[in-house]
């Protein structure tokens, strides 16, 4: 009444309202479906986990002796916290007093909220542990499963590691030493080298029936996704029943249910697609200018986690990457500053990537430049992912059209060499390419005209290459067709005593790995035998290495090419020797070994016969007595 009277008298008034903008606290009882499973979300773990399908095991390298380290010094506040946390672990039954010869020191790490996390320094134990190679899933593969998903729920296990027991015989290996005693873990502890792999194995076993259908699991994080709310209700029931049956417990305060958009593994997932987590990007945008190589590596590591959201990521970060290379002086140039700021801006404006639809078609756009290779995968006009990489040292010498072919499978690079001819060249997979005796059918280089057209066309037909050749009225190519090398090898086999003996054994039914082909060639495990000390072997090695069609391969590549068709004793060593003596390779190819070190003078001996030295010169021409070393 008084306020109304004052307003009627012309007094100024201000109308204000107070609105509580805080989000209402979500309780377990308010969540549909979830409230039916309160025993899955206890306030604390109810005690030791039950026996499971797998236990955490610590396999050590052979002949390993126990290692014990002295406790680290701690501040008074840390000692007080240590006493409290040790008592909590004892009360829960997660640790027990130990008399183990093993002993790791204890330290504290601050959490985001300022509290302290108890950590055990197991580095010495981890060095001696046989590594478990169980694979962690690729994060980009996980997001590819979210096709048409519109409803999401996220479950985070409560102290997941403490829900898996350690194998009884390995408990003493987890012992740790502190100011207040010597203890050992009964459940899996943080810091053990194989903990991630074993826990991932456990979770995959628990949810194996649901993986890639409506559940994604990454260590102790569980994402449930569905196309409709009705589906999601059923999926939630199945997941919670599975957790309850396996006595795995979640922390309700870290769980989220019935979401249209969810943050998972540093990404924001919704029905529109996958985008970067703004909270993570804020850490990148606030990153101070790096002043050391390690700081650059840390920045590139964090930014690189989102590289599939950034077009030409490798090109943009090239100046920064150059600084991380060994022997490069640290000079922060304008190009580095530009790269540093541009990658920040690109991440802030990163697009939402669409989730690929397996039933739809994809389009790849690729590009090449002297700075790197890049491509974008698209579907229905939306970006699925970006990819890029920097050029390797030898690729920097390629012309642009060669780099473009690099993006479309290097095995098609010779397409440009025959583009002036009327040819149809279909792709033929290597596993199906069984053209017989490919190396033996290589023709010699000559200035003669093609005089035998039919055999050459038959060879092309076997290779499934359609070639149109008109009347040969002028020089078409500098090729000539000669008798096959295979026939020359078969004839030379008759002059090799070792192969003659093997042929005799085959004919009498005693040759195990040897056989005789339909054209009377001696074969070893299906490969043609090449005689020793023969002209044809030298011809074969020359063809396989320095023919105009081969381009001087290395010893490993040349050996693999030859051994698929031919065989002779000491083949690998002879191929390596042949390649090492190639003058062209020595003159043209870049050296792959480290440069020779500087000569270091030996100290003057104090007494005779105190130092005896010897030098060897190897690979000399063979003498009449067979010596090659002095």
UniProtKB/TrEMBL annotation:
Pfam family of the protein (one): RVT_1
Annotated ranges, domain Reverse transcriptase: 90-269
InterPro entries xrefs: DNA/RNA_pol_sf, Integrase_H2C2, Retrovirus_Pol_polyprotein, Rev_trsase/Diguanyl_cyclase, RT_dom, RT_RNaseH_2
Entry-linked SUPFAM superfamilies: DNA/RNA polymerases
Keyword Cell membrane: no
Gene3D superfamilies documented for this protein: 1.10.340.70, 3.30.70.270, HIV Type 1 Reverse Transcriptase, subunit A, domain 1
Source species, domain of life: Eukaryota
GO terms for MF: catalytic activity
Keyword set, alphabetical order: Multifunctional enzyme
Keyword RNA-binding carried by entry: no
Stored PANTHER family: PROTEIN CBG26694, PROTEIN NYNRIN-LIKE
UniProt protein name: Pol protein
Originating species: Cucumis melo var. makuwa (Oriental melon)
